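Now produce a polypeptide, keeping tokens residue-aligned:
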Amino acid sequence: MLIAVLSGFLLAVFVPWLFRQFGEQTSKLLAVLPAALFIYFLTFLPAVTEQGPILISYDWVPALGISLDFWLDGLSLLFALLISGIGFFVIVYTGSYLAHKADQRKLLMYLMAFMGAMLGVVLSSNLMAMFVFWELTSITSYMLIGYYHEKESSRRSALQGLMVTVGGGLALLAGIIVLGNIAGTYEVREILAQGTELQSHPLFGTMMVLVLLGAFTKSAQFPFHFWLPNAMAAPTPVSSYLHSATMVKAGVYLMARLQPVMAGFEAWTIALTLFGSVTMLLGATLAVTSTDLKRILAYSTVMALGTLTMLIGIGTEASLLAAIVFLLGHALYKGALFMAAGTIDHETGTKDVRELGGLRKAMPYTAAFMSLAALALAGVPPLFGFIGKELMLEGVLSSPWAVILIFMALLTSIFIVACAGLLVIKPFWGNKTKTPKKVHEAPLGMRLGFSVLATVGLIFGLIPSLVNPLVTSAFDAISVETVEPVHLALWHGINIPLMISLSALGLGYLLFKKWDSLRPAAAKARPMLDYGPERGYDIFMDNLVRFAKWSTMKLQNGYMANYILTIFITTIVLVGYTMITKVGFHWDLDFSDVTLKDIGLAILIVTVITYACVTPLRLGSVAAIGALGFAMALIYVFFSAPDLAITQVLIETLTVITLVLVLFKLPKFQKLSSSDVRWRDCFVALTFGAMMAVLLLTVTHFSMPGRISEYMIENSYTVAKGRNIVNVILVDYRALDTLGELFVLALAALGVTAMLRTKKDKS
């Protein structure tokens, strides 16, 4: 399982090499991995559906109680199958969509890493491990959305998506920490086992708000919905993958995963139902007023994410079952529609529905399967999308706010039916128009994905019993009570959901027929819909830049003396305040063991410091600084630290030599500050020195724990498995510090390499 999750990252590293070896065939080779992962996860289906969840555990940070556990139940298995299955078609599609383009390898590399990050999110049992993968999805999606980095719009959209999702991720991290403290564990299965008992904790409400901020930003819930349509700046393969099976559903996954713990909590129910329903209707409204194929699909994804959030928030058995079925149906038809829309754009040179028409003869294959997927989007029988839509309406009717929610669901359905007409009727059956490119059918690699996904949606609609075991298992994973086996059916008889669905189909078709005449009025009202949250984001970013400029001018003004003065004053205030209010001042002066050499060394240090401060001679100042360094080396020698003494001597020698070599290139000493400023600096320096002296005396006043060296000697081999204690300290106990140093050295090496290469290229 660990190899399965990390395989995407591992293979991504070798993509450039594979592309050099196999060229245009690389995408087909890479597609083998998601296909193999799909088969691998499919082998767990009988065990998960018949015997229950499976736990696969690996030790990660045992000292902190963090393990790398993978929890495979119905919900995580459903997501894993969608991520790997749709990932296969997206990788194949990418090879054809970007055929003969050298930077194809870059997109393939990002997609493989993106797939690995999403698998980690849905399969991780430990919340901390899940958060690591959660942030990796934000980072990889940033690179995917900004794929066309030479375009300002792509860079802006990528940054916008990163800022919104990472900002929410920080809130999520805080929420995870609070949840871990409340539950006493970060393991999802152990948290779920405690159920609704956690709701009595006073911090439960705070935790819920923080978690929802993370989930809402990731899944583009109002008022964070604006970043998702702007992500259409990415190539179509990215849009197809991101909207159907991966990143945007991570927030939905998190909400569904925590539903057994949150069930019945009033604030949770109200928040998800309210924001979900508003997002649902807003997404549908923005979709039907758009003219770009990809934006219509993007806003319909916002609608779907809002619908899923609303259904989870309602929390009844009917709504939770509807959420699972709706999620599966949406993944199938949305992946197909995006690939088909990208195919139209690729072959015609335009995505604007006003410039498309009469394509059915030139692109009959695309017309047939895109129509099939669009019918599923509209909820037309016998497609699986119809079953999901019927169950969604049943779930809404089970809510205490059924009247208002069913009205919003009806309006949403009407708008989405009109959108389905815009996606297929207008481009394929409308009046033939002239397009920027000569139209012809796309290659098989681009048609494979949407053909299979649309066909699967039809098969699941005709034979819904095929998905009964998986849906039952996923439903059971998010339900508080044990559920009975689900029996999905295409026909539920004549009931209220059917009447609403038929009404939506009829009214939606009428709206589509009137779309051309209504569009000018909608275009005038559209800026009102676009103005809100995104404008707030722009204002926030502009002010953030202004604040950064102001703070840089004030704090990073280029004068080392100001930096040191600020650090000293801040330290004096904070440490002094803490000592006065918390600890007090304590010192026990004992000069009984002071020797003559100690007194002489102290006098030498004070003398050279004073001389360095007052001398007008540059060479004399350098010599005094060197003498100070060598005096410090003597202190290390007296206290039996020869390694530090040697290091100090080497550094001081090198520093003095360097200063002498550049001495004559430096300007002469000048008095640029007034006497008042110099006396101020002197006072701050003396105060800082006195404070440090008092601090050290106070620290030594209190009884100290056992010598840390004894702990290192006892545990170096038994715990860290190393006999060289110094090495163990560096690579184990100080692992992060050492890692940071290595990272800095690596960056320096990269910088030097880049400069050398640039100089070579210019020459």
About this structure: The beta strands are 54-61, 66-72. The chain has 31 helices and two strands.
